[in-house]
Amino acid sequence: MSVPYSTDDAGHPAPSDGLSQSVGPNGPLLLQDHFLIQKMAHFNRERVPERVVHAKGGGAFGEMEITEDVSQYTKADLFQKGKKTPLLIRFSTVAGELGSADTARDPRGFSLKFYTEHGNYDLVGNNTPIFFIRDPSKFSDFIHSQKRRADNQLRDHNMQWDFWTLNPESAHQVSFLMTDRGTPKTWRHMHGFGSHTFLWYNADGEKFWVKYHFKTDQGVENLTADEAKAMEGQDPDAHRRDLWQAIERGDYPSWTVKVQIMPFDDAVNYRVNPFDLTKVWPHADYPEITIGKFTLNRNPSNYFAEIEQAAFEPSNLVPGIGGSPDKMLQGRLFSYPDTHRYRIGPNYLQLPVNQPKVETRSYNFDGPMAYANNADPVYAPNTMGGAVSANELYEGESYHVSGEIMRSAYELHKEDDDFSQARALWEKVLSDSERANMVSNIVGHASAPEVTGDMKKRVVEYWTNVHPDLGAGVAKGLGVES
Ligand code: NDP
Ligand code: HEM
Question: Which residues form the Catalase core domain (predicted)?
Answer without folding.
Answer: 7-388
